[in-house]
Amino acid sequence: MSDFHRLSRRTVLLGGAAVFGGAVLGPSLAGCSPLGAEGARPLKFWHLLSGGDGIVMAGLVDAANEANPEFHAAQTVLAWGTPYYTKLAMASVGGRAPDVAIMHASRLPGYAPGGLLDPWDLDLLEEFGVTEADFPERIWEKGIIDGDLFSIALDAHPFIMMYNTDVAEQAGVLGDDGQLVEITSPEQFLEVARAMQQVTGRRGLSYGYLGDGAQMWRLFYTFYKQQDAEMSLEPGEPAQMDEDAAVTALDFIKQLLDGEIAATNGDYATAVAEFVNGESGMFFTGVWELPTAVNAGIPFDAQPIPNLFGTPAAYADSHAFVLPHQSEPDEAQRREVYRFVASILKGSFDWAGAGHIPAYSPIIESDGYADLVPQAHYASAADVLNYDPPAWFTGSGSDFQTYFAENVQGVFRGGDSREGIQGFVRRLNVLLAKPNPVA
């Protein structure tokens, strides 16, 4: 695939997001595709993908509809976060569920045990050419609850590190292969960041966290898991957390927030602006910011966040297909849902254009994907990803990360790491003493 084609598609993604703005946040895309051919089964498809992601998904749905006259999928796009998950739960309980929906894999423990989702039939999936062997082990296993498969991942979207290649070269930290030198310890990371700060004259690293529990949690959990630390949240039991590993992770993040390596009190928007304006050498962010960096025109590459504590690990989540519960599903209708999902997965190469790592391994293993840079340089994060510890109250768009922020933002601003993590554990214990409200 040529650089021209690749960059043009990314530019279209970002430009389209600017044109549509918030318009895709409501159900305005429902039925936006042409009507299906006569005899095609209409499929109701709900998702929460807006902006550039929503535009790419619309293209994937259109392609699937065109290639499969047996069905016609119509999208309904709902607001991200609590409104989406609340409406999805209510639709499943009230008998008005769509045929298929997308949810974050990390939210599965709060939905599948409560009967809000139906399991996938592995034999029928295989009939349409989709099997366990087609997915990275960690991604496939995340969809399994009590032995049944309840979600099929479209992607992995991990927390990664972007870096300015010009700044890295001037700082003397670019290897012979044109990529950042391997960083294997906290001390080495600090050295590289300071060298980049000397080049930019402003920051070595962009990382925004202020008022953003998700940003705080993503980086903390990455460094926590790099210490091979576990976290167990069993209902009715006290939270199990490696307090020393948590303190180590928080103390290191505080070292980064010294006003030179990274801003002491930076928010996410400021961090994005710093990096795309060439004012920092590195950027801790999600893969979803790839189109932003491309559109800025800066020289950059990306990789998984360096393994600083001994165990390769990255925080991540996945957009995953689920079957909202239906008391009497139409077998012929369900069959077309399987055909639809298989078609999206097999055609998900363009999903990488938005930065996400396609979960369907044949896409990653294709020759064309190897030519995608920087996507191919951080694809290995899918093999070391870590989802939120499973519990009914964790996952993207939940209050879990807000509770983390309530206890840890003060730590990031100079407070005591141990006191902060102990406060978070106390908050978790209150939640673990309560039953799943939808179970």
UniProtKB/TrEMBL annotation:
Pfam families: SBP_bac_8 (PF13416)
SUPFAM superfamilies, per database record: Periplasmic binding protein-like II (SSF53850)
Gene3D superfamilies in the record: Periplasmic binding protein-like II
Protein name per UniProt: Extracellular solute-binding protein
